[in-house]
Structure formats: C-alpha cells, structure tokens
Amino acid sequence: MIYFDHNATAPVMREAREAWLNATEHIAGNPSSPHQFGAAANKAMTEAREKLAAFLGCRPAEIIWTSGATEANNMALHHFAQVLDPKAQIWISPIEHPCIMESSSAYFHHRTKFIPVTHAGVIDLDWLTVEMADIRPGLVAVMAANNETGVIQPWREILAICQQYEVPFFCDAVQWIGKMPAKGLGECNFLSGAAHKFGGPRGVGFLKVPGRGHVTPLIVGGKQERGQRAGTENVPIIVSMLAGLEAREKQLARNEHILRGVWRENFERQLLHKLPGAVLVGAGSPRLWNTVSALVPEGSQLRWVSRLDQAGIAVSTGSACTTGKEEPSHVLAAMHFKAADAHRVLRFSSGWETTEADWAALADALGKIHEEMSHTRAHAEA
Ligand code: PLP
C-alpha cells in the first residue's frame, strides 16, 4: 500500500519508536513522585520541555503537555471563555479544524466572528487590519496551515497586527510542526501542536501559553503542569514526540522538504494533464510541501477513494476527522466553492518517507481510474 493520508495521521517514525521503547523500558516513575524514579521521569520530561521550547522560541515553563491538539485547542478556548468579559467577541478563521470551530461555538456562541477567507484559501489580512483598527476582539485564532488544503496562513503578519493592538493571538500549528521549521511560533501567545502528524506517537501534544498568568484548567483533579492540566504525564510519549521532532527539524535544516515540494509540483502537473477538468484547490497560495487538494472532474469522491484503495493507494476526502457520512467541507465552503464542487474534492497528503515514485504511482492510478470512468460513462450514454 502507498499511504497518502499523512494529514490525518502519519506512521510512527523510527526515531520516535526507539525513543518510546527506550523510555518505556527505563523510565518507570511518575514525574511527580518524591524518589529517584520520580526524579528520573521528571528529568526526562524537563529535557523534552526544554527541547520543544528551544524549537519554538519560548520558555519551557510556557508549555503544557496534553493528549493531543483537540484537547489543547479546547483548553485554550475554555480558558478564554473563563477570563474574557462576557460580552467580548472572538475572531476566528472559518477554516479552522472542527475542534476549534465547535469549542468556539460551545463557549462563545454568537460572539464568534469569522474572518473572511479568499478563494485561494488564505484569511483576508486587509479585512483584519481594517477591522482591528476599529474594534478589539478578546482573541484572534487562526491556524498556521490548513489540514484540508495545505494552504499556509500568514501567521507572522496576524501576530504582528495582534501585537500592535495588544490582542492575544492563538495559532493551531498542528499541520505546520514537523513539516516546516517551528522557529518563531513560540511568539504566538497561545499555540497548539500534536506529534502524530509528523511521525511522532499518537495521543500527545501541547499547548503553549503566555509565561505570566495561569491558564484555567480544562481537566481538574491534580497539580500537574503547574496546576494547569491534571493527570499523570505520559513521559515515554512526550520523550518520543521530541525525538521525532528533533529528527524532523534536522531534515528541515538540511532543506529536505524543498525537493519534496518539487515532487508534489510535478505530481500536480501530471494530475492536470491526466484528469482534464480537474481543479487544484488553493493553487495560487503558498502551501505545505506535502498536501494536494483537488476537485476531480467526474465521479463521487468516495468512489475515487475506494477505487484508489483497491489499487493500493490510501487517500482521503479531506475532512478525515468525521466518519462515513460526508458533509460538504466547511473549508471549501469558506473558500466560496459550491457544495456540489466540495463533493468532488480529494486530498493527497504525503509524508517525509513518501518517494518520487510514490507520487508517480498515484498520478498513474488516477489517470487509469479516470479512463475507466470515462469509458463506462461513454458506454452508458451510447
Ligand atoms: N488541528 C488541526 C489543524 C488538525 O489537522 C487536527 C487533526 O486532524 C487537529 C487539530 C486535532 O489533532 P489531534 O488529532 O491531535 O487531536
């Protein structure tokens, strides 16, 4: 099988697996325990915190370990719901992951305002600049890169605007971390990440919070994480996440992602050639080197996914976090695609281990399926 669904989750990389096995074997204690076993666990966790802080450019004490990004994102929105004025608005992009969309709606209801998004899938910075000069929201939340389209959001510029008006900025960097250099992300007031999108273990992530002040815990019943997130920390998966991230940051420093971006561009040319009428989503915007979102010219998206699966290639329809029943993507709707078009979207997301030959095999399989579908249609019409 060839795997093109890394934006949903990625296979665990060797460095992360080895670090997990080693930590599971050698770190037996609870980091809160007052003996040598506890001290050893606490030391490993502290080192992991220091490493993550160094990659992000923030202080170790600003990092709270979580079970993943869904929890981190819920925690951030929950916190703002506790501390903001009950009349305060929050501004979010309408292309956020459902865990931000739904927690915003749960905690802020009609006090959530959506920042417009262009047809190319980027938030409208001009809108933000003009609106912010007039009104100050209690929070701005925009992701670093979109999970469905791979479109990169101008998080540095948004951060600068928010800093100018002293509005806290929260960035979900789940799809960015481990695929693009993490440097600078730590300047965002709030920031979330998870390990399993870049080859780290599943079930671990973090929320970076401002150093001063205390974040209202979402999970209570223990003093862990300076009283901000109760529950015994899972030291082996934390250590494993950082071993994985360290290896990815080395690959990024060697610019290994640039070549992978070229493979993706070659694939896109092949796709447009083999599937006349196909449309690349977000084509005019800077995008992650691993993601292609495309509207196929005919046939339902689930039929394509199933035909590719039979051909030994795993792809997705984009919004992978829901099951079975496919709702039209809220991301494509925000980008002004019609619902009928949204039902034609396929997402191909590669990983660090994906080869140029894998991309070529995907293009060939798409071409063959398209030919078969056109053939069947021509027969039916005759
Ligand atoms: N945010 C984004 C942008 C995502 O792509 C995902 C997962 O698909 C999440 C949050 C949720 O992450 P997790 O699976 O770690 O809870």
Question: Could you explain how this protein is built, in words?
Answer:
The structure is a single chain. The protein is α/β, with parallel strands linked by helices and 382 residues long. The protein folds into two domains: 2-8 and 255-381, Aspartate Aminotransferase, domain 1, CATH 3.90.1150.10; 14-252, 3-Layer(aba) Sandwich (Aspartate Aminotransferase, domain 2), CATH 3.40.640. It contains 13 helices and twelve strands. The strands form three sheets. The protein has a seven-stranded mixed β-sheet with strand order 2-8-7-6-5-3-4, with helices on both faces. A three-stranded antiparallel β-sheet has the order 9-10-12. It has a two-stranded parallel ribbon with strand order 1-11. Helix 5 runs parallel beside helix 6 (155-164). The two termini are 36 Å apart. The relative contact order is 0.16. The mean pLDDT is 96.
- CATH C-level class of the largest domain: Alpha Beta
Shape: globular
Q: N-to-C SSE series?
A: EHHEHEHEHEHEEEHHHEEHEHHEH
Strands, total number: 12
